[in-house]
Amino acid sequence: MDKIIKATPLEDYRIEIHTSSGVSGIFDVKPYLGGSAFKELLNESYFRMVRPAHHGIAWPHEQDFSADTVIWDIQHAQQGA
Question: Confidence class of residue 79 from pLDDT cuts 50, 70 and 90?
Answer without folding.
Answer: confident
